[in-house]
From TrEMBL:
Belongs to the RRP40 family. Its main location: cytoplasm. GO terms for molecular function: RNA binding. GO terms for biological process: CUT catabolic process; exonucleolytic trimming to generate mature 3'-end of 5.8S rRNA from tricistronic rRNA transcript (SSU-rRNA, 5.8S rRNA, LSU-rRNA); nuclear polyadenylation-dependent rRNA catabolic process; poly(A)-dependent snoRNA 3'-end processing; TRAMP-dependent tRNA surveillance pathway; U4 snRNA 3'-end processing. GO terms for cellular component: cytoplasmic exosome (RNase complex); nuclear exosome (RNase complex); nucleolus. The keyword Nucleotide-binding does not apply. This is Ribosomal RNA-processing protein 40. Keywords: Cytoplasm, Exosome, Nucleus, RNA-binding, rRNA processing. Gene3D superfamilies: K Homology domain, type 1, Nucleic acid-binding proteins.
């Protein structure tokens, strides 16, 4: 049964041998050390920063935790993938709307093979698939269209054509990003298509046939619970 978490609630401690990865809605806080502890050591514990259902995924020795909840605005959390729309251009790159309280910064060189002489020329309104690089405390979030592990595009970059679906529940987005999502697998057996899922509640789909694309959009919208 899913556990409901409220802001300030401590996360149930995972096994000490596991590596802890915190997702949206959780942060690390310190608590006074118990009596008898030498020095000024303080206990470190993950706590909830917003209300919602506590999500958990175990992968070998890795424990992933996050808070599922409905939010009007997306809270950036590296290295999540996001779908953004270019809203402004400047000398060194672009400002991109990712649905958060402020736009994200996309460097013009943050594309595979980009150089100062050869870099993408994106127009305002262009849709891009990127991942969050960092979230500096006093500036805009930074995104990139290069996979840091391979230094390749790996599916990130400009998206042309297709249809953008907004407002998809974050839990559904996470499910669609699973390597073997049953819904996408069944649809893929019927007709070829492309899909890009952002953890900012946006999903982009593209199919060769207009009718197939409409079916994709309908299925994703059904997943939204509408």
């Amino acid at each position: 049964m899913a556990r409901v978490a409220l802001p300030g609630d401590p996360l149930l401690a995972p096994p000490s041998s596991s590596t802890l990865h915190l997702g949206p809605g959780l942060s690390i806080s310190t608590a006074p050390a118990s009596r008898g502890t030498k020095g000024k050591e303080r206990a470190v514990e993950p706590t909830a920063t917003r209300a919602g259902l506590l999500g958990h995924l175990s992968q070998g020795d890795k424990e992933r935790w996050w808070i599922e909840g409905t939010m009007k605005r997306y809270t950036p959390n590296p290295p999540e993938p996001v779908l953004g729309i270019v809203v402004a251009r400047h000398a060194e790159g672009y400002r991109v709307d990712i649905g958060s309280s402020q736009g994200a910064s996309l460097d013009a060189l943050a594309f595979e093979g980009a150089t100062k002489r050869n870099k993408p020329n994106l127009k305002v309104g262009t849709l891009v698939y990127a991942h969050l690089l960092s979230t500096p405390p006093f500036s805009e979030p930074e995104i990139s269209c290069v996979d840091p592990s391979t230094q390749k595009a790996s599916g990130f970059g400009e998206l042309q054509g297709g249809f953008l679906i907004r407002g998809v529940e974050l839990g559904r987005c996470r499910a669609l990003l699973a390597p073997k999502n049953p819904v996408l697998s069944k649809l893929g057996a019927r007709f070829p298509f492309e899909v890009a899922v952002g953890m900012n509640g946006r999903v982009w789909v593209k199919a060769a046939q207009e009718g197939d694309e409409e079916k994709l959009v309908e299925v994703i919208r059904e997943l939204k619970g509408r």
